Each structure stands twice: as C-alpha cells, then as structure tokens.
Amino acid sequence: MATVAESVKRYSTFFKKHAATTVLDYGTGTMRNARYLEKQGFMVYAADIPEQVERLRNSTIGTGLERLMNTDELPTSQLNVDLVLSTYVFNIIMESGDRHAYLDNAVRNLKAGGYLLMEVRCRQLNEQCDPTCRDFFACDECSKTLTHQELDTLLHPHGLRRISHYYRSHAVSAIYQKVFTK
Ligand SMILES: C[S@@+](CC[C@H](N)C(=O)[O-])C[C@H]1O[C@@H](n2cnc3c(N)ncnc32)[C@H](O)[C@@H]1O
Asked: In terms of DSSP H, where are the helices of 58-110?
C-alpha cells in the first residue's frame, strides 16, 4: 500500500484526542489515507470523481469498501463528519468556481466545530518554478502551489479558521476548524 500522507500520520493523534473519528477523505485517489485511518479505528467515507471511483471499484484496491462515494453525491449529502481530509487535491483544482464548489461540499458535510486537514504543494516565497519562469506564480506549474496565507483567504469565506499549520520541503499542511453557527 502507498505510504500515508505525512500530515495524516502526524495529526492522527490530535484527531483521536479530539474525538474526531468520522472522516470524509475528499479526493481519495488510491485510498492510502482512508486505509491508514481505518486501520487506526476511524470510520472513513472515501470520495472521488466518478472516473476514479469506477477505477477503484474495478480494482482490488476498492475491495470491501462500503463507504466509497462519487463526488457528485456530496452537494446533497449531509455526512456530518468530524474531519474532512484533503491531501494534494485542492492544488490541482484550478478554476475558482470549482475550488469554491469543493469547499462548499466539504463544509456542508462537516459538523460545526469539525476539522478540515489540507495538505497541498507549496512554494518557497520568492521562488520561481524554474529559473526561466517570468510569470511569478501565474504559470501552470506555479499556480498549482499554495501558501498558508492563500489557503486562509480562500477558506475563511467558507467559515473555516486555521488553528495549526507547518511547512515541509514542498508541502504545506494546515488544520482548519469550522466555526460554530448559532
Ligand atoms: C494527486 S491525487 C491525491 C489523492 C489522495 N488524496 C492522496 O493524497 O493520495 C488527486 C485526487 O483528487 C481527485 N480529484 C480531482 N478533482 C477533484 C474534485 N474536484 N473533487 C474531488 N476530487 C478530485 C483525483 O481524481 C485524484 O484522485
């Protein structure tokens, strides 16, 4: 099985301590994180775009999965999970409207006070994707990276507040909490 994402390994103790044990792995890919957390006793829904779900269902990786969902189910579901996982998904969604739709679905299925863990590719400040890049973060490669400040700007309007983050080589990981509504 593929190695679990570093942020998931690192923060799983935090989530257990805060009784955040029901999870939506949103953009599950090969399910490396979903499988890891299931083994740790979490209850995990794994969602991906229909083509990827089809691939998983037709492969041994998807065997025995009751909670595998198509992303097009999420705008009408209310899973009320404690935690949404998003690793290396948000940085590949390039259109602003698609990013907001993704966050709407994440927040809709997350309980008030619940957590969103996001890990994305990042760049070092003032770094170009390669020495010849003159686009300053607007070229196809640079725009597939985000900083924690950019994440804050995108996630705040969705009622998500950052409570922790760290950088590691070319990735940034951050935990956001969904603000309680009256
Ligand atoms: C780079 S893979 C990461 C997979 C997994 N999260 C991981 O860390 O191993 C990106 C995944 O996001 C999925 N994806 C792409 N666009 C998406 C969207 N709009 N909503 C949810 N998943 C999406 C892709 O199908 C793919 O499985």
From this structure: 96-108
Per-residue pLDDT tens digits for 47-105: 999 999 999 999 877 666 679 999 999 999 999 999 999 999 999 998 999 999 999 99
Question: Any residues with CB less than 8 A from the CB of 96 and at least 6 apart, and which?
Answer: none
Structural domains present in the chain: 6-178 (3.40.50.150)
Residues 6+ apart with CB under 8 A from 60: none
* Ligand 1 within 6 A of CB of 89: yes
Is residue 118 lining ligand 1, measured as CB closer than 6 Å? no
The pTM is what? 0.91
Task: Indicate which residue's Cα is closest to atom 20 of ligand 1.
Answer: 27
